[in-house]
């Protein structure tokens, strides 16, 4: 009798364990992402979500917008999010402070500045010298938009601190509204806001900071070194999904991409989304792969140094790990 029930019990244990094993293989891993802004600039990320590329990798991503680089990094360091989509300069700031658990860039999403120079009045045959003695509504000091903006101005012989009235004390989320209400003669704006302002007659796009400032690891997915150590598989799956999103955007029309990302811009007309995606594609803003190139990293250091935000040059191997990006590319072939 004992043997009989013993075997029955053992069988039940085996069946139960097998059941658990089956369930485990289909379970998904939750990943909380904090994006620095909601922008068409990040179209490949939205495509990866909407096309189910993260789900295919067994990931359940929760996306939240944490407006501003400082807020996004605070959320990452405090553990409120697992992965941050923010400018690579933030990882350098953390490293410069001597962090014991540095922030590591593992997948690049955009490779140029995503802002455009918008003038209140229409200007034909624009020349950068026309900004002199004007009121320029810039971005937050120390952030990539502002540093790339100042880098471009200096490139054209304009001293941002002395040749124009530079306003940079307005919160990132309020810059567009400030310009619309009458502050400044020129402003730096991301898409789709730039296209919306053109349609509504609030401004005119006259130049691209992305084109002017060159290749930069402008927006990158990053996480804490400790998270990578504990969740290498998740980071790899995450990068695989992002690469698929990047490739999808590169091989589809602006109209197709705009349609896919519409759920993230429910109050934006389709033609505006198409215009924004087209602008970014034409100037090569969307990175074609998640690999962060050393030449782009060095350009970033030059931009930061020019802005006076770099204590010393940080070699990429200190805060960049391209392993996951390269694996994602190899595994897709």
UniProtKB/TrEMBL annotation:
<comment type="similarity">
    <text>Belongs to the bacterial solute-binding protein SsuA/TauA family.</text>
</comment>
<dbReference type="Pfam" id="PF13379">
    <property type="entry name" value="NMT1_2"/>
</dbReference>
<dbReference type="GO" id="GO:0042597">
    <property type="term" value="C:periplasmic space"/>
</dbReference>
<protein>
    <submittedName>
        <fullName>NitT/TauT family transport system substrate-binding protein</fullName>
    </submittedName>
</protein>
<keyword id="KW-0732">Signal</keyword>
């Amino acid at each position: 009798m004992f043997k009989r029930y013993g075997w029955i019990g053992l069988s039940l244990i085996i069946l139960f364990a097998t059941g658990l094993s089956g369930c485990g293989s289909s379970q998904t891993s939750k990943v909380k992402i904090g994006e620095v802004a909601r922008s068409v600039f990040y179209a490949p990320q939205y495509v990866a979500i909407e096309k189910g590329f993260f789900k295919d990798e067994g990931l359940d991503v929760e996306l939240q917008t944490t407006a501003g680089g400082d807020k996004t990094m605070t959320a990452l360091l405090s553990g409120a999010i697992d992965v941050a989509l923010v400018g690579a300069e933030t990882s350098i700031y953390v490293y410069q402070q001597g962090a014991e658990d540095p922030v590591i860039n593992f997948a690049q999403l955009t490779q140029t500045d995503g802002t455009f120079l918008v003038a209140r009045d229409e200007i034909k045959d624009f020349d950068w010298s026309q900004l002199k003695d004007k009121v320029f509504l810039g971005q937050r000091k120390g952030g990539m938009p502002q540093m790339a903006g100042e880098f471009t101005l200096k490139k054209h012989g304009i001293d941002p601190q002395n040749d124009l009235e530079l306003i940079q004390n307005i919160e990132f989320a309020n810059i567009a509204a400030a310009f619309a209400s009458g502050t400044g003669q020129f402003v730096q704006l991301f898409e789709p806001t730039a296209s919306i302002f053109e349609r509504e007659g609030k401004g005119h796009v006259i130049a691209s900071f992305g084109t002017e400032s060159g290749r930069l690891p402008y927006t990158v997915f990053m996480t804490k070194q400790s998270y990578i150590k504990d969740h290498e598989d998740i980071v790899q799956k995450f990068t695989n999904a992002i690469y698929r999103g990047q490739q999808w955007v590169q091989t589809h029309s602006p109209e197709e991409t705009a349609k896919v990302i519409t759920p993230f811009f429910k109050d934006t007309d389709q033609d505006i989304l198409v215009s924004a995606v087209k602008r970014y594609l034409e100037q090569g803003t969307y990175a074609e792969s998640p690999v962060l190139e050393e030449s782009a990293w060095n350009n970033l250091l030059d931009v930061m140094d020019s802005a006076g935000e770099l204590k010393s040059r940080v070699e990429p191997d200190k805060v960049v790990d391209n392993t996951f990006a390269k694996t994602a590319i190899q595994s897709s072939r």
